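Please go through the protein record below and see whether the fold suits the sequence. Record follows.
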Amino acid sequence: MTGQLVELTQVETSVEAEVIISMLSAYAIYAYTPGMKGRNEPFFILVVDADLEDAKALLNAANEDAGD
């Protein structure tokens, strides 16, 4: 992996974070969420800067599908 990790999105639960990371992984996009969080702190989803636009497009498409 080369490049910098940048923030893709924030979610409220570890389950949401794992679902997003799993989906991105299926498209060969490395995604990561830093370690333990305190109460009421969001989970940050990070991706490699070179993959940011593709990751945003996939996340937006998944959110649109969920809204159907």
